[in-house]
Amino acid sequence: MGETMDKAAALPPIAGLRKVLICGPVAEAGKPARGGFESANLRMMTLARRLAAEADPLRYPEVEGGALVKAVAYLGSFCAIALAILFGDARGAAIHFTPLSKHFMPWECALILLARLKGYRVVFDIRAGSQRRLYLAGSFINRATFRWGLRLAHVVAYEGRPYDAFLEEVVPGKPRFWLPNMIPASELKARAGFDAEGPRLVYVGLVSEAKGAVAAVKLARQLRERLPGTVLAFIGRRDPGATPLLEQAGGDAPWIEYAGALPPAEVYARLDRAHYFIFLSLWRGEGHSNALTEAMARGCVPVVTRHGFSADVVDSCGFIVDDRDSIDGAVDWIAANWNASDWTASSRATVARIADNFTDRQALRNLHAIYQAAFA
After folding, report:
1. Topology of 2-185+359-374 in CATH?
2. φ and ψ at residue 324, rounded to 5 degrees
3. Alpha carbons 148 and 142: distance in angstroms, whole number
């Protein structure tokens, strides 16, 4: 952490920047985040406090219930945010929008327009892996408001490298910067040695079919035929709809654990004992998974689907599944990798991959460049 703070101190002040407001889903410090979007925005707000005198959230609501309940909650939240923008002090202030897009986009675009009219500097930050698909499949209004929001922004940020070309098509010439999800560099932890008990597989996140929970059970069962010591742990709340599918796949075996949602310290303790992180997601909103970054940072070798930005994050430091219905290749790869020399080399490579690309060291420099461009 000391090295990270030194790098922060070495960055020159941004002329004119006094305050940053993060607008979108933002987790509350010290409380469990509902998802990766919220936790990523909380980390970004923490980084922004190193660059500006103030950094605060314009927080979207956390709400459970039906469509009507959610509609009322979001309408009230957007009105409150609009009033905060309207009566706020825009001098030296940037609003860093992280829109939900989809059917929210017209309302979010109205907030961006209000911010511009009030005199705020605006960052439009795409924090999802589904935006291009949603844009191409969306209505004329959604496409038009998305383009308008991007054009209104002083600068655009994007979570995954593949979006660079997409943004050049939609808003050519607009200043844009890669801003991937990240972890604090202090959370990096290379393994001291090889623990031959296992292999221990781990899954972190919402336990659902779309996120790959059922596929993880199938992979683990096949691998157990080759390596009888294989065990699998699920960490995260379970989607009720996934329970019958998990049972059908054999997910009620005694060597499979469902730990539920755990505090961050306990999640890291579990990751430190695991060998492979299994993330076979086909969820339509998948982008850059926080859980993937965290697991790799603790030395868990990743096995992921080529979906969202996972393949770009993993690169050559694990195994990438092209077809989730055919996991024989992944099973063969893990079985071959499961020895002291190969697993240790793979584990250290995953930590190095995160250290070189996805910590607050790199994110702080990227964020500095973004706000500098916004105030240019």
Report:
1. Rossmann fold (3.40.50)
2. -65, -20
3. 10
> Would you say 199 and 334 are in contact if contact means Cβ atoms under 8 Å apart?
yes
CATH superfamily name and code, 189-356: Glycogen Phosphorylase B; (3.40.50.2000)
Give the single-character DSSP code of 223: H
For residues 256 and 62, the model is more confident at 256
Q: Which residues sit opposite 94 in a β-bridge?
A: 20, 121
Sequence-distant (6+) residues with CB within 8 A of 201 are 216, 219, 220, 223, 230, 231, 232, 233, 274, 275, 276, 277, 278
User: Which residues of the chain does CATH 3.40.50.2000 include?
Assistant: 2-185+359-374, 189-356
Phi, psi of 179 (to 5 degrees): -135, 80
Q: Number of C-alpha atoms within 13 angstroms, CB side, residue 162?
A: 17
263 prior amide bond cis, ω within 30:
no
| Partners of 54 in the β-ladder | 19
Measured CA to CA, the distance from residue 70 to residue 80 in angstroms comes to: 15
Checking if the pLDDT of 2 tops 70, the result is no
Cα(61)–Cα(59) distance, integer angstroms = 6
pLDDT of 32 > 70? The answer is: no
What pTM was estimated for this model as a whole? 0.87
The answer to whether residues 155 and 176 touch, using CB atoms and an 8 Å cutoff, is: yes
Please give the structure tokens belonging to residue 356: 């070189």
